[in-house]
Each structure stands twice: as structure tokens, then as C-alpha cells.
Amino acid sequence: MSGDIDIYGVFVPTLLALMVVAFVLTGALRFVLARIGFYKLVWHRSLFNLAVYIIALGGIVAVAHACQP
């Protein structure tokens, strides 16, 4: 994985970009889980959301690392 991503002349750390992607993905998943009523089964919603975010970020980083030439 390279160190930075160039966005219109502004260098953004790769991890920051991947964190934003994971946040958007987790937000969509939280919306779906709330709509189907899954959170009624969860003991601590905030800890569950944090765990899902960490898992999503780890998966996205692993995929980005595997796709690197």
C-alpha cells in the first residue's frame, strides 16, 4: 500500500481514505440493521457498532493490500 493518495494536489493518507470508506459502509449497514430490528437482540449498541466498524476497516485494508500490485 502506498503512503498517500493525491486528491487534486492534496495528499491524504491511505489509511484515512480507507477509514472513510469503512465509515460509509458501516453507516449503511447500521441503517439496514436498524430497519430490520436487529438491535433488539444486541446488548450494547455502541460497542456492537464499534466492533462492526473495526471488522469492516480490517476487511477493507486486507482487500486493498491484496489488490496492490
Describe it.
This protein has 69 residues and is mainly alpha-helical. Helix content is 65%, strand content 12%. The chain contains two helices and two strands; from the N terminus they run E-E-H-H. The chain has helices at residues 14-36, 45-66, and strands at residues 4-7, 10-13. It has a two-stranded antiparallel ribbon with strand order 1-2. The longest helix is centred in the middle third of the chain and has 23 residues, at 14-36. It is elongated, with a radius of gyration of 15 Å. Keywords: Cell membrane, Membrane, Transmembrane, Transmembrane helix. InterPro entries: DUF1656 (IPR012451). It comes from Pandoraea oxalativorans.
